[in-house]
Amino acid sequence: MQVAIHWQDAHSSSANAVSEVFPDAEIMICGGHAGSARKEILELRQKMKTASKQMFGKYRASFPAFVS
Predict the structure, then answer these.
(1) By the 8 A CB rule, do 6 and 30 touch?
(2) Which of 31, 32, 36, 64 has CA 20 to 30 A from 10's CA?
(3) DSSP string computed for 39-62
(4) What pLDDT score does 68 carry?
């Protein structure tokens, strides 16, 4: 069997397993799962009152207004 694309949720364990057996397969994340994960991350970030040095470093280049 030759698998070209594997659709899945965002769990890396299944992606790793598929990649071991089908190294040429492209791993695609389901839009519904990706949207749900982003929503959860945004809800957690919204509750934060301060940002760590790591967050400033991570987002400085992409969001300069965030750092100022």
Answers:
(1) no
(2) 64
(3) HHHHHHHHH-SS--HHHHHHHTTT
(4) 58
Strand partners, 8: 29
43-62 burial by CB neighbour count: b if 16+ within 10 A, else e?
A: eeeeeeeeeeeeeeeeeeee
Q: pLDDT tens, 22-63?
A: 999 898 888 777 777 788 888 888 887 777 888 788 888 888
Q: What is the Cα–Cα distance from 29 to 18, expressed in whole angstroms?
A: 13
Q: Which two tokens stand for residue 14?
A: 């299944």
Residue identified by tokens 């698998």 is: 3
Find the length of the chain: 68
Q: Which helix (H) or strand (E) holds 26?
A: strand 26-29
